[in-house]
Design a protein that fits this description.
Elements: E1 28-34, E2 45-51, E3 58-68, E4 79-85, E5 88-95, E6 105-113, E7 118-124, E8 135-145, E9 152-155, E10 172-183, E11 188-190, E12 196-198, E13 207-209, E14 214-222, E15 231-238, E16 243-247, H1 250-260, E17 285-288, E18 294-301, E19 306-313, E20 325-327, E21 334-340, E22 359-365, E23 398-404, E24 406-407, E25 413-415, E26 426-432, E27 441-444, E28 454-455, E29 470-473, E30 479-480, E31 495-501, E32 511-512, E33 517-524, E34 529-538, E35 542-548, E36 551-556, E37 560-570, E38 579-585, E39 591-596, E40 601-604, E41 612-616, E42 642-651, E43 657-667, E44 669-672, E45 679-680, E46 685-693, E47 707-714, E48 720-721, E49 736-738, E50 746-752, E51 758-766, E52 774-780
């Protein structure tokens, strides 16, 4: 028998259940044994190779076992094996020592196979095994379905939940955008920060994306219907912008869910799904392409979902949302405004340019020679001399030239006034006058997934009255409205709306607990907005500032309360009443100061000790809460001896909390019944008597408190002497309790004073009193 081949053993059908895997299964079942009589395998490898016949395309389950048959010959050595599908490793293992068939290693994987695809089980010989190579295998290849659906990555909108078992699919991983043009409030850590292949923890390239970076965030989620059977996923996703980092490990996902997660999507509770990330190593791996714009991944999922978070640079904002439209409905000259949010999912690189006053559009055809007549919009007109007109792909040679002009109330052009989109939503304002209401949309952006160039008509072109005004959006139906060349008088002031980003305070009581906070001012008017003026006082000062146009934005970064004053003026000189907006920022937890009790201090039993503590917060108001075991100024707990702690908690108006603790001890007072000035002769017995008392001298002795002598020290030399008791009244050097001593009982220790002349201290402990410094003094002459 060739060592690199094997044959189907029909007698093996239904014979040996191996580690719970029954041999009786539909499909091709093959068992084989490689032994020394087959000769040494080439390069130490024995292969079982299965090739799928043409016409048998489908999805297959591949199950089997590998065991060490060396037990038959009394040998012990490691044996390695791996399973490959089309050369890609799907499972592997190590057989250490002697493994019987009942202890076989098993594999159970799924794969899509087409005619000519291969399944290979490779067995590696131990070159140090003198007895040869003895390995038994069993493999079963079962067709699950006749048609293997292609593996895909399903792009979806943010789902309600990506917790375990909430979003399942056996064939496709899910992909969705979480955040678009999002400003990081703080630095985040990523697991992979550069192009490369990541197939082990050691291959990771950790990095940091700093606070203030504008990013887009995306999420990959894979979770099979049946957690008991492994499912393999693979796919790739390409991005418009470079990948700044990939978060692949569970800890990083837990830490960034609250920052980068899609609003409204429920993510795993931190720590509840410790295996939610990629367990790098076969089959879990991912690749960042050399240009940094494509992520490819493969992973196997069993009882836990697998998830990735990809953070890219933010796209230049596309203020045109496909499908957005607005309609002219008034016969008067008005300003009509539609809010267009940024849309990072639009293809292309077009930037919407729009003026908040007069914009005159015209469509030109590059193929029409200068001086040739042409109809506006429908067939185009000649490209003006000296004007560059780049044809638009798929537009029949047409291109769009937008002439941005600003006009005063008399229709006189005085300046160019282009406005480009920012990272915030932009207000597209159209001024027009029509003789009767018009049902057709004045602005319609197509939903065909192509880049759209849209122009808003806001007046007429005095320089070329033959061009009728109108709105033109490439890839959408043309709308034309005749706009008379006149502007009415205006007596109504504009109206300014202030908003913030984040949209609402993310702390308590109207406080933001992240910084910076962006402030957006957007004004509307019956005619045209000329400018917005604003200033700020308080935590952050902004000098009076005037900006032309109908919108502006700026950031508040300082902690505390900042009051912003603002008002808009239109082209007719009408000024709205001054408005204010208060922005409160607090990112710092309150400070706690505990003066009393003193950390590490020792107090006497029932000693009155007044507390003294305070809590301050320099940013938010009112003052933070400040809660301890007792109110500041009240006495601490000294009612019993032992080690104590004192904890103060504080929460400020923004909802930020702090905790601080100190420790202290409470000890007995010692009331002596001997005069330390009375001396005894050396060799005499000294009856040392005392009682335990509190701060005021009240006797608290009782027989349940063990008083134990610990050491005898001569005061002048600090030399230690042996403690010798007289008789048996003080076993184990414990004081004897005597109810007749002291006011309510006391203790006596009969010490044999075989000591040189001098003054001595006998140290002792008392019950659970943490003090080690109690002592009685006596003299020897």
């Amino acid at each position: 028998m060739n060592p690199n081949s094997c044959t189907a053993n029909s007698n093996a059908l239904g014979t040996d259940p191996i580690n719970g895997l029954a041999n009786v299964m539909p499909g091709d079942i093959v068992t084989h044994t490689v032994d020394p009589f087959n000769g040494n395998p080439a390069n130490g490898v024995a292969n079982f190779l299965f090739t799928l016949p043409t016409g048998d395309d489908g999805r297959y389950e591949i199950r089997g076992s590998v065991w060490d048959a060396g037990l038959l010959f009394g040998t012990t050595r490691p044996q390695d094996w791996k399973l490959l599908v089309n050369g890609v490793q799907m499972a592997s293992g190590v057989l250490s020592g002697v493994v019987s068939r009942s202890q076989a290693e098993t594999f159970d994987v799924f794969a899509n196979l087409a005619g000519g695809d291969t399944v290979s089980l490779q067995l590696f010989e131990d070159p140090n095994a003198a007895a040869g190579f003895f390995v038994g295998t069993n493999m079963n290849i079962t067709e699950v379905s006749a048609v293997a659906p292609p593996q895909t990555v399903l792009k979806i909108t943010p789902p309600p939940s990506v917790q375990l078992d909430a979003l399942e699919n056996n064939q496709s991983a899910f992909f969705f955008a979480e955040r678009v043009s999002f400003v990081l409030p703080g630095a985040i850590t990523v697991d992979a920060s550069s192009p490369g292949t990541y197939n082990s923890d050691g291959s990771l390239t950790p990095g940091t994306i700093p606070a203030g970076t504008v990013v887009d965030s995306f999420f990959v989620h894979a979770d099979p219907f049946d957690p008991n059977n492994g499912v393999f996923y693979s796919g790739s996703v390409s991005f418009l912008n470079p990948i700044l980092g990939v978060i692949a490990l569970s800890g990083g996902l837990d830490q960034t869910d609250a920052i980068l997660g899609a609003p409204g999507t429920l993510y795993p509770v931190p720590g509840s799904e410790p295996a939610r990330g990629f367990e790098l190593g076969f089959p879990d791996m991912f690749v960042i392409s050399a240009d940094g714009k494509t992520l490819s991944f493969s992973n196997g999922v069993g009882g836990a979902s697998d998830q990735l978070r990809i953070v890219t640079a933010a796209s230049p904002p596309q203020p045109v949302a496909p499908g957005t439209s607005t309609t002219f409905t008034s016969p008067n000259v008005i300003n009509q405004t539609v809010t267009i949010p940024p849309d990072a999912n639009m293809n292309g690189t077009a930037t919407m340019r729009v003026s908040f006053i007069q914009v005159v559009p015209a469509v030109f055809n590059a193929s029409i020679a200068a001086g040739t007549n042409g109809n506006a919009f429908s067939g185009g007109k000649p490209v003006p001399a000296g004007t560059t007109c780049t044809p638009i792909a798929g537009a029949g040679g047409n291109c769009i030239i937008t002439e941005n002009k600003c006009f005063d109330a008399n229709g006189t052009a005085f300046a160019l006034c282009p406005i480009t989109a920012t990272t915030t939503p932009i207000l597209l304002t159209s001024q027009y006058k029509i003789l009767s209401p018009q049902a057709n949309p004045a602005l319609l952006i197509a939903s065909d997934g192509q880049s759209d160039y849209a122009v808003i008509t806001t007046g007429f072109d005095p320089a070329d009255p033959t061009i009728s005004g109108g709105t033109k959006a490439l890839n959408s139906d043309e709308v034309i409205a005749n706009l008379p060349g006149s502007l009415p008088s205006d007596t109504v002031p504009p109206t300014t709306t202030a908003s913030t980003s984040p949209l609402a305070p993310n702390g308590a009581n109207g406080w933001f607990i992240t910084s910076p906070v962006s402030v957006i001012l957007a004004a509307t008017d019956d005619t045209l907005v000329k400018q917005i003026a604003y200033s700020a006082t308080g935590a952050q000062s902004i000098a009076p500032t005037t900006v032309p146009g109908a919108s502006t934005f700026f950031q508040i970064t300082n902690q505390g309360m900042t009051t912003i004053s603002y008002q808009a003026t239109d082209q007719a000189g009408n000024m709205e009443a001054l408005k204010t907006l208060t922005v409160k920022i607090d990112t710092t937890s309150p400070n706690i100061s505990i003066i009393s009790p003193t950390n590490g201090a020792t107090y006497t039993l029932k000693q009155p000790v007044a507390t003294s503590y305070s809590c301050t917060d320099p940013e938010s108001s009112p003052a933070p809460s400040c809660t301890g075991p007792v109110a500041s100024g009240s006495n601490i707990d000294t009612a019993s001896v032992g080690s104590k702690s004192f904890t103060v908690n504080s929460t400020d108006a923004a909802g930020l909390s702090s905790t601080q603790s100190v420790s202290y001890s409470v000890s007995y007072n010692v009331c002596t019944l001997n005069s330390p000035s009375v001396a005894v002769k050396s060799g005499a017995v000294i009856p040392l008597k005392m009682y335990l008392c509190d701060f005021r001298g009240n006797d608290v002795s009782n027989s349940g408190v063990i008083v134990h002598a610990t050491k005898l020290i001569q005061v002048s030399t600090q030399a230690s002497d042996a403690i010798v008791t007289a008789g048996s009244a003080n076993p184990d050097n414990d004081f004897r309790f005597d109810s007749t001593l002291g006011p309510a009982g006391g203790y006596i220790f009969n010490l044999l004073a075989n000591l040189p002349t001098g003054t001595y201290n006998l140290f002792f402990t008392a019950g659970n009193d943490p003090s080690k410094s109690h002592f009685l003094t006596f003299q020897v002459n």
